[in-house]
């Protein structure tokens, strides 16, 4: 592994561990009314139905099409995990996750490369712990109001660069309020963007978190035997 990649891994894991312990994150960088239908003063019997229909049409409000949040199935060697994605709250993040990684089968053969009391971390390394080539970094949408609570899924990133997430994501094992976006008089502190929630298989995540671990190079807690991501597929 290149020195730059190793140093980023160490800083990311160290930062996540510190924040999980309660340390704070560093600062990141009336219109017109619609016209009403006209009604004849003395409608005929045949026109009465037409008038009622006109009134109903005029008063009816257009129905807003309800967005359907995507769902992905994460198949691992430890079992299946189903995650609902919050496309309305984190549109760029969900689009990046699906279009740049899930649909390209990027995650197949990657492993869970870190576990601790706060999280289970996926999505960046093969079984040899070499980093996979990722696409462009994305904007940090952590100000979307979604919390880093148990079972919620968030993007991992470099602790020094708020807008640096690519493919790696983690499942919160506990309520990690220190991971959330914060706005203060001094400015804003970008957190870790939540973009999904485990809706089935949280017991599998717990099982992975309780796996025996070993330190391998710059990775302090890698499940041993490895937990392999066999596939991530969109199922809705």
Explain the layout of strands and helices:
Elements: H1 3-20, H2 45-59, E1 71-76, E2 79-85, H3 91-102, E3 114-115, E4 119-122, E5 152-155, E6 169-172, E7 182-184, E8 187-189, E9 194-200, H4 202-209, E10 213-216, E11 219-223, E12 229-234
Antiparallel strand pairs: 1-2, 1-12, 2-9, 3-4, 4-6, 5-6, 5-9, 7-8, 10-11
Low-confidence stretches: 1-5, 21-45
User: What's the total number of strands?
Assistant: 12
Global shape: globular
CATH level 1 name: Mainly Beta
Strand content: 15-25%
Question: What would you report as the Rg, rounded to the nearest angstrom?
Answer: 24 Å
Question: How far apart are the first and last residues' alpha carbons, in Å?
Answer: 37 Å
Which sequence of strands runs across the widest sheet? 3-4-6-5-9-2-1-12
- The CATH superfamily is Cyclophilin-like
What's the CATH topology label?
Cyclophilin
Number of structural units classed as domains? 1
Query: pLDDT average, as an integer?
Result: 83
The DSSP helix count reads 4
Provide a descriptive summary of the structure in words.
This protein has 236 residues and is an alpha+beta fold. The protein has a single domain, classed as Cyclophilin-like (Cyclophilin, Beta Barrel), CATH 2.40.100.10. The chain is 22% helix and 23% strand. The strands form 3 sheets. It has an 8-stranded antiparallel β-sheet. The chain starts with a helix and ends with a strand.
